[in-house]
Design the sequence.
């Protein structure tokens, strides 16, 4: 009798363990806005829609682009911390208002090209991850770029200095202070509001990536483009730690590997889109966008010098002062990770 009872109990325990190991984990996912274009459409959304199939993980993915949720990009970390969503395609500049450490990934002038941006992401992501885990119950799964953010104007310009007196759309405080330093008037605007604001003359210029601008029709309401990379527009994927811990260690490794592959793919695709969109916007042969006829303003050595000096003299010290108020180790961690690489030891 006892042997039969013990056998039954062991069988029940094994069955229960097996069920628990195969419990379906629901992943409620916020993606990039539809309005941001081809990375969201061609890479990100298909990745999430096929994630269960490609990884074999016991997951159920419900993916929604940000601009279909009613949630603002500045709220993404709060949404993750609350558990309202499990995984979010983080718009780093926007969420840096809640965690200034994040902006250390993409200070104005820090990432003028893809090679620089990748090195910065690799060196500083660990610092950002630790901070997100501590304050927002969020693990950082990877960092990727939209690409160099450049200047579009509905106004004749011949150099960066010609923004003096013009109203320029910006998307974070670091960029705002740099624009102010060269005589422009920074105007914070969400991406979705920029086209109309340019058309109405609410702003004279705006900064974003060439591909996003092309997808959103900015060249319809501008005349000139200065392809000077102010920032790399780094973004990332964050997962709620409670959700992450529902997976076994092997499942976590599988999920992380999938995101590592995704991030590598976006880095490569972003650069392809950047080069192609530059051609599209000025009327040259291109494949991924709509042809327009913007005037391309040559980037001068003076423009590049203004950007380099701006990082050292404006972007870094301004950011460091703000960041150190909420994270006393902020600037020290940044210098330890990046100081040697950028000549600021």
Sequence:
């Amino acid at each position: 009798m006892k042997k039969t009872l013990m056998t039954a109990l062991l069988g029940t325990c094994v069955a229960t363990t097996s069920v628990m190991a195969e419990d379906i984990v629901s992943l409620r996912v916020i993606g990039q806005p539809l309005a941001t274009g081809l990375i969201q459409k061609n890479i990100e959304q298909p990745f999430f829609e096929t994630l269960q199939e490609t990884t074999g993980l016991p997951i159920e993915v419900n993916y929604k682009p940000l601009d279909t949720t009613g949630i603002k990009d500045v709220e993404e970390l709060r949404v993750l911390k609350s558990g309202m969503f499990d995984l979010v395609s983080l718009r780093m500049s926007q969420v840096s208002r809640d965690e200034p450490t994040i902006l250390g990934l993409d200070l104005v002038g820090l990432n003028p090209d893809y090679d620089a941006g990748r090195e910065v992401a690799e060196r500083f992501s660990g610092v950002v991850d630790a901070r997100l885990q501590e304050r927002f119950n969020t693990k950082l799964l990877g960092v990727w770029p939209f690409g160099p953010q450049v200047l579009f104007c509905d106004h004749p310009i011949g150099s960066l200095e010609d923004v003096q007196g013009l109203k320029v759309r910006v998307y974070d405080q670091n960029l705002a202070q740099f624009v102010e330093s060269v005589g422009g008037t920074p105007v914070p605007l969400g991406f979705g509001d920029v086209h109309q604001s340019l058309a109405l003359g609410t702003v004279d210029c705006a900064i974003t990536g060439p591909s996003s601008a092309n997808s959103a029709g900015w060249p319809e309401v501008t005349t000139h483009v200065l392809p000077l990379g102010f920032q790399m527009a780094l973004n990332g994927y964050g997962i709620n730690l409670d959700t992450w811990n529902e997976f076994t260690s092997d499942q976590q490794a599988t999920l992380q590997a999938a995101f590592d592959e995704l991030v590598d793919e976006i880095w490569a695709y972003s650069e392809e889109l950047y080069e192609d969109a530059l051609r599209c916007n000025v009327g040259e042969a291109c494949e991924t966008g709509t042809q327009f006829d913007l005037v391309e303003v040559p980037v001068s050595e003076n423009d590049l010098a203004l950007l380099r000096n701006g990082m050292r003299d404006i972007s870094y010290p301004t950011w460091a002062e703000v960041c150190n108020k909420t994270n006393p180790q902020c600037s020290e961690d940044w210098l330890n990770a990046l100081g040697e690489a950028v000549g600021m030891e």
User: Anything to note?
Assistant: The first strand starts at residue 25 and ends at 31. The chain is about 50% helix and 15% strand.
